Amino acid sequence: MSTDYKQMIFLNIPVSDIARSRAFYAGLGFTFDERFCDEGGACVVISDTITLMILTHEKFAGFSPRPVSSPAESAQHLICLSSESRAAVDALLDKALASGGTDTGKTIEMGDYMYGRSFSDPDGHVFEIMWMDVDRAMAAWAPEAASA
Q1: 17-55: string of b/e by CB count within 10 Å (b at 16+)?
Q2: Locate the VOC domain: which residues (predicted)?
Q3: Ranges of each domain in the chain
């Protein structure tokens, strides 16, 4: 394996309206790789190693070995994106709400080392946004901290 190789993640999700979903994800500040966009889907670039493929239900069904379910009715997945700070978590949630997303109302707060919130996109897919100070988390989770 080349030392230049970066493993990537391609998340594929079914959406009911490509144009609406494109507008939503653009509102979050994400870009698109137009080489992989057509009437059946769009390639949302989250980072240089994370790509979200938003696909029509028909196109998604062509890839999936299982029936397409409604993300508004059942959990299909939880997509968690890391953020650089607590403020960045809140800022992305604000962008999601301004772009047509919904606040799930779920906030996770663990001491001074972890903070997270979540939103649903217009189709109901849940995205978690999480900030964590790993050093503080490790200190809090250390065996000696548990016995204190």
Answers
A1: ebebbbebbeebebebeeeebeeebbbbebeeeebbbbb
A2: 7-132
A3: 1-67, 69-148
